């Protein structure tokens, strides 16, 4: 009974985790498209909204000044990379999530490799940016990799058992 419950918990975590991954992917693609058309304008508007009151109260505010400098240094190359990364990462997540939810056995190793590469990239970026959001997403991706591995080993075991059963 305990094994059955653990198996059901892993299956449910797998389904929910992969569904969340696909939803994230959809929003990444959407953000990439919006960013492609609005680019620096949207960054400037967000920075302005975040810093306007602080700068009006204290023109020498360190954090607000830092954000304004980042906004001003945002280049077209940075914009292109952000658009490319968001759309590419989102499409990969959606494609792999759909294949996994459809129980395509070939998708498991591809998902492990793809998500693993994204984890490595995110860890490298984390050491550069120290972003809490990036750290959270990396931990979530590690969780996804673990449940994909568990589900994949379960699927492989089922296939081996099915192949080993003598047909009568």
Describe the structure.
- α2 (40-57) packs antiparallel against α3 (62-73).
- The protein contains six helices and no strands.
- It is an all-alpha fold and 168 residues long.
Describe the protein's topology.
Layout: H1 2-38, H2 40-57, H3 62-73, H4 76-101, H5 107-129, H6 132-164
Main features:
single chain, elongated, 168 residues
Helix fraction?
over 70%
Distance between the first and last residues' Cα: 29 Å
Number of helices: 6
Largest sheet: none
Overall average residue pLDDT: 81
Low-confidence spans: none
Radius of gyration: 21 Å
State which percent range the strand residues make up: under 5%
Structural class: mainly alpha
Q: Outline, from the CA principal axes?
A: elongated
> What is the N-to-C succession of helices and strands?
HHHHHH
Task: State the total count of DSSP E strands.
Answer: 0
